[in-house]
Amino acid sequence: MSNTENYIEWDDYTELYQAYLDDPSEKVLSTTVFPRILQILGKVSGKTVLDFGCSMDRFSRIMHDMGAMVTGYDLSPKALEIAKSQDSKRNIEYLSRQEELQENYYDIVICIMVLLCNPKAQAFQLVNDIYAYTKPGGIVCFVNTNVATLGRSYQSFFRQLPQEQKEGSPYQNRIFTPKGYLVITDYFYSPEHLKQMFENNKFQLQGEEIIAERSILHILKKNLE
Ligand SMILES: C[S@@+](CC[C@H](N)C(=O)[O-])C[C@H]1O[C@@H](n2cnc3c(N)ncnc32)[C@H](O)[C@@H]1O
Predict the structure, then answer these.
(1) Number of domain units in the chain
(2) Probe ligand 1: pick from 52, 75, 94, 177, max atoms within 8 Å of CB?
(3) CATH number of the CATH domain containing 193
(4) Full-model pTM
(5) How far does the centroid of ligand 1 lie from the alpha carbon of residue 223, in Å?
(6) Which domain holds residue 206?
(7) CA–CA separation, 7 vs 61, rounded Å?
C-alpha cells in the first residue's frame, strides 16, 4: 500500500515537528514511552528492526546504537533527508517506498504515533502491511494517543475532538512548538477499536499499557506459522 494522502502534509511539517521534538517540555515519548518499549523488548542487538513512520529517526538511531539492524521507513522524503543528514555516520537504511520493505523479515517493528495519522481504511491496511513485514514470532509495538484522556493530559495540546466520536473521525490536533503551532489532522481510535484492528489482522495481543495518561502502547506478536 502506498498512502499519498498524508504525504504533502508531513513533508510540509518537518520544521515545526523538529521544533516540537526539540522542546524539552514535550519529551514524554522519548523519556517515558520509548524506554518502556526497550524494557519490554530486552536485547535488540543483532535483530532486524523496522521503524515504521520513523520521521527524523529519533528512535531508529537509539536502536541502531544498541546494535540492531535498523530500517527507517516514512512516506515523507523530506523527513528522511533530514534523518540521513543527521545520522550519516550510522548504518541505518532509509526507505520512502513501501514496496521496498521485505515481508517476513523484521524481528521487531515499532510504529509510534503513526496509525492515528491515517483514516480508517488506511489504518487497517497499515496494520495488515506491518503484519506482513514482521517475521513469524516477531514483536510489534504500536503507540497511539490514548483518546480517553484527550484534552486534559497535558497543557500544550489543544485538541478539537470530533463532535460525534465515531471510530476514525478526524479531529484537529494543535500542538504548541517554540516556532509556532503545528496543526495536524489525527483520527479518533478508541482502545477497543485499536485492539480489534490488531486482532482482525491476526496479531496476538501480548499487552496493553497506558503510559503517562496520554499514550497507549500495544505489544503484539506474530505467531509462528
Ligand atoms: C507524528 S509523526 C511520528 C514520527 C516518529 N514515529 C516519532 O514518534 O518521532 C508521524 C510520522 O508518520 C509518517 N506516516 C504517517 N502515515 C504513514 C504511512 N501510512 N506510511 C508511512 N509513514 C506514515 C508521517 O510522514 C510522519 O513522519
Answers:
(1) 1
(2) 75
(3) 3.40.50.150
(4) 0.92
(5) 26
(6) 7-221
(7) 23
